Amino acid sequence: MRSVKLAGTTAERKPRSLSGGQRQRAAIARAFAGAPKVVVLDEPTSALDVSVQATVLNLLNDLQREKDTTYLFISHDLKVVRYMADRIGVLYRGRLVETGSSEQVFRGPNHPYTKLLLASSSDEVPATSSTSISGEAQNTGCAFADRCPIADDACCRAEPPIKEVEPGHRIACYKR
């Protein structure tokens, strides 16, 4: 409990008596109890307000350094991902559409879905488009083709190959 900045008595308290940040830190303490080498974090700050998010993310970074742990960090919040990740993999409907260092993914070029995520997490107002994050599933071709503003017939016929656009930065798109 000390490693996550909670009082030792917190372990005896009921979860409903803890704040959201305290519950999250207790969950982190449980995750680190067995001295793991890899920790999977699935939306670890999604239900927290911004100030508590910052505290939890800083705690996670401190623990990662102290415990020499690797994180598999899952989130739709790209601001949080940018803060936490060295390398990023963008998934769409279970398919990896882009991978690269944090710098490469945020600098671009990007898969159209990554562009959509970046625009939706930006403080700027995104350009108006008929594209949204939800859509109908598709069996062949690019999983994003039914909503992609640059898709053509080739995108709908076969899954695009993964191309290296620069060393370590890969995009699964016919157009990139």
Structural class: alpha+beta
The amount of beta strand, in percent, is: 15-25%
Over the alpha carbons, how many angstroms does the gyration radius reach? 19 Å
Poorly predicted sequence stretches spanning 5 or more consecutive residues: 125-134
**Number of DSSP helices?**
6
Could you walk me through the main structural features you see in this protein, from its secondary elements to its overall organization?
With 176 residues, the protein is an alpha+beta fold. It folds into two domains: 85 residues, Rossmann fold; 91 residues, no CATH class. 34% of the residues lie in helices and 18% in strands. A hairpin with a 2-residue loop joins strand 3 and strand 4. The longest helix has 18 residues.
Task: Name a few traits of the molecule.
6 helices; alpha+beta; two-stranded parallel sheet; Rossmann fold; 4-stranded antiparallel beta sheet; 176 residues; single chain
Brief characterization of the structure:
The protein is of the alpha+beta class.
What is the fold's blueprint, element by element?
Blueprint: H1 20-32, E1 38-42, H2 50-67, E2 70-74, H3 78-84, E3 87-92, E4 95-101, H4 102-107, H5 112-121, H6 153-157, E5 162-166, E6 169-172
Parallel strand pairs: 1-2
Antiparallel strand pairs: 3-4, 4-6, 5-6
Helix pairs in contact: 1-2
